[in-house]
Specification:
The complex is a heterodimer of chains A (364) and B (311).
Chain A: H1 2-24, E1 52-56, H2 67-82, E2 85-89, H3 97-106, E3 111-115, H4 120-129, E4 135-138, E5 150-155, H5 158-171, E6 176-181, H6 186-205, E7 211-216, H7 223-235, E8 240-244, H8 248-259, E9 262-267, E10 278-284, H9 286-298, E11 306-310, E12 317-319, H10 329-343, H11 353-363
Chain B: H1 3-32, H2 40-58, H3 61-85, H4 90-112, H5 141-146, H6 150-168, H7 170-180, H8 182-187, H9 192-218, H10 230-240, H11 245-267, H12 274-293
The chains are: A alpha/beta (364), B mainly alpha (311).
Chain lengths: 364, 311
């Protein structure tokens, strides 16, 4: 029996080792786009050399049909247009971030991306230990404490939220719309108040009186809770609910599907989850942001030590292209006008409670 | 608070509790036979993935539901081989299962869905049916409370079945005997290994059904974060319910009700921070555990591997 135990122990170790290997794998560079010569460990500043770029994904993996996938599409576009050579490291749990960043460093990349705010601490630590390497992070700003070799890339999520808020208010038949947030944080608050402001704007210009119900799920991975909250909102009379809650939002969309109501997606075009119910989505084009930074690097203008903010102007945020399936053309035309007003600075979309109060005053 | 608010809270409780109930019943089966099953979470995850994937490709939610259960059962078979045949540490094996379940689900998801880590959603008409849909006026108390997916009602049925199996049948008596004192059971001619295998595999099937009831009833697709902690909550509910099916059921319902109340309160004008609201289910659980439930004692030989030839 004890021999059996030993064999079993070995088997278990093998299984565990296999799992660990499985976590850090997935280095599939796009070979089709690989130009002839390949440079490794060359000077980072050399602009006509081929740049080597890699990204470390969040736990969703590279095909998460959201953030990470979008970032990877941006890098692939850069490979095609700018002749860079991109690669990725997938993380399957938070503990993978640090080893993946180290692997990326060992491969002598010219730029290492961390996708998502969850990697913020790991990227900062890596950047401080390796001042010669260049890093970039999506959806996080270190503010004044940004190391010189790091770029933070953030998006004006309040802008598409404003647009979908306008659409929701214009399309609501019950005079009530909902907002489901993941966890309160700077990013989600911007979604929240941008949406509120969009509704307030519609109330003003179209002389409506649409109210917003708001609730936070305090989780990004609890679809049952998202569904419960959305059901509760529909029960209270809301007919359109916007979510900024990641996986929790799957439940919001599910509730819309079951109750035959409307939902608004986030980050990417989520119409595929419920084609009859998701009327639009507040999209963040992570690919555009990633591509722009790579382009800057290529042109020798790497904005290290700063946080770059992308919005409507750069085409880095928008509403979903499938919006015309459900949203009437008049409203979409108005949305285009509003976009111009936002870009021109005529409308200053609020990002938190204080700026929202100020915004309301300008509407009076 | 109106009647429809109460209906909403009951509805949310049932929706939340059902997947936990399946999984907790899985824990009841396994642990009554003396095998600790920490791997419920991993078994749920694979069940959730297989359930929705089979339902998506076959168009039959029932087939998906059953296959989800079966997938959990296959993982449980591994747990049984390790813990029963090889007398391995049951906690270690359970942890390995918890790695294996999500890993396998992600890997297979990539194979079947063009590399995506989430599966495509099943259309509404191909989900598990809601037996009382359109029976009551929309938005009425009865509609809000009881217009649930069939999986919810099956969960209650399963509680009764497991109770009957454990306390009213010969095989149930054997399972409990093996969990209390395997040596005594062995001397009476009961095949301890066989009984344990049966209990552990059933436990995986139930956990797999729990996972599938998440992915084809609560939502309609699988993603990596769908099962995040439900297996452990179910495990806690089982201990809370003193290793009995009916006790576990009440524990799961309590947890569901607490979530329902949190969602209800969050939607009212009462200004409580949502972080504090979020603690309610756990605080409530602690209070009830300390004041009403009393000492929870599991099967005497729970977690101890049984080896025939030991003195």
């Amino acid at each position: 029996m004890s021999k059996m135990k030993k064999i079993l122990a070995l088997l278990m170790i093998a299984v565990l080792a296999f799992t660990v290997v499985g976590c850090s794998g997935g280095d599939k560079a796009d070979d089709a786009e690989k130009p002839a010569e390949q440079t490794e460990g060359e000077d980072n500043e050399a602009t006509d050399e081929q740049l080597k770029i890699t990204m470390v994904t969040d736990v969703g993996g590279v095909n998460d049909q959201s953030f990470n996938q979008s970032a990877w599409e941006g890098l692939q576009k850069a490979d095609k247009d700018l002749g860079t050579k991109s690669d990725y490291q997938e993380s399957h749990q938070d503990a993978d971030f640090v080893p993946n960043l180290e692997t990326a460093l060992d491969a002598e990349n010219d730029l290492i991306w961390g996708i998502g705010f969850k990697l913020a601490d790991a990227v900062k630590a890596a950047a401080e230990e390796n001042p010669d390497a260049k890093y970039a992070i999506v959806d996080f700003s270190y503010g004044d404490k940004t190391p010189d070799n790091v770029v933070g890339v953030v998006f004006k999520q309040e802008q598409p939220s404003f647009l979908v808020g306008y659409i929701a208010a214009m399309m609501s038949e019950t005079g009530k719309v909902g907002f489901v947030g993941g966890m309160e944080s700077e990013v989600i608050t911007a979604f929240d108040y941008g949406y509120h402001a969009g509704v307030a704007y519609a109330n003003k210009v179209a002389d409506k009186d649409v109210k917003v119900l708001r609730q936070y799920a305090e989780a990004f991975d609890d679809p049952a809770k998202g569904k419960a909250i959305a059901n509760s909102m529909y029960q209270q009379g809301a007919d359109i609910v916007f979510h900024a809650a990641g996986g929790t939002g799957d439940g919001v969309i599910e509730a819309a599907k079951e109750q035959d109501k409307y939902a608004i997606g986030v980050d990417r075009d989520q119409n595929d989850l419920a084609p009859d119910n998701v009327i639009t989505s507040a999209m963040k084009r992570v690919d555009v942001g990633v591509y722009n930074v790579v382009k800057d690097l290529k042109e020798g203008k790497f904005p290290g030590g700063t946080t770059v903010v992308y919005g409507l102007e750069e085409g880095a945020v928008d509403i979903a292209p499938t919006s015309d399936k459900h949203v009437p053309k008049e409203i979409l035309d108005k949305v285009e006008e509003i976009k111009k007003l936002i870009i021109d600075g005529e409308i200053k979309v609020p990002v938190d409670e204080d700026s929202y109060e100020e915004y309301l005053k300008t509407l009076e | 608070m109106s009647l429809s608010d109460l209906g909403l809270i009951i509805g949310i409780s049932l929706m939340y509790a059902a997947p936990l109930m399946y999984t907790a019943l899985g824990g009841v089966m396994s642990e009554n036979s003396g095998v600790v099953n920490i791997g419920l979470e991993g078994m749920m995850t694979i069940g959730a993935f297989v359930g929705t994937t089979v339902a998506y490709f076959s168009g039959s939610p029932w087939l998906g539901f059953l296959m989800g259960g079966l997938a959990g059962g296959v993982l449980a078979l591994l747990h049984a081989i390790a813990c029963v045949s090889f007398a391995a540490d049951q906690v270690v094996s359970g942890i390995a299962i918890n790695f294996l379940g999500p890993g396998l689900a992600l890997f297979l998801s990539r194979v079947f869905f063009n590399g995506a880590t989430m599966t495509a959603p099943i259309p509404l008409q191909n989900k598990i049916p809601r037996p009382m849909n359109n029976l009551f006026t929309k938005g009425s108390f009865l509609d809000l409370a009881f217009n649930q997916y069939a999986t919810v009602y099956i969960a209650f049925l399963l509680v009764f079945i497991v109770w009957f199996l454990l306390y009213k049948t010969k095989i149930g008596l054997r399972i409990r005997a093996v969990g209390e004192h395997p040596k005594a059971a062995d001397t009476l001619g009961i095949n301890v290994f066989k009984v344990k295998y049966l209990a552990v595999i059933l436990s995986g099937i139930f956990a797999g059904l729990g996972g599938a009831s998440m992915s084809i009833a609560v939502v309609s697709n699988f993603r990596a974060t769908l099962i995040s902690g439900q297996g452990f909550i179910a495990l806690a509910a089982m201990i809370f319910g003193k290793w009995t099916p009916q006790g576990s059921m009440w524990a799961c319902l309590l947890f569901g009700a607490a979530q329902g109340i949190v969602v209800y309160l969050g939607g009212t004008d009462i200004k409580v921070s949502s972080q504090i609201l979020e603690m309610i289910p756990y605080i409530l659980t602690l209070i009830i555990l300390m004041s009403f439930v009393g000492k929870a004692t599991g099967p005497a030989a729970n977690g101890v591997p049984y080896e025939k030839n030991e003195a």
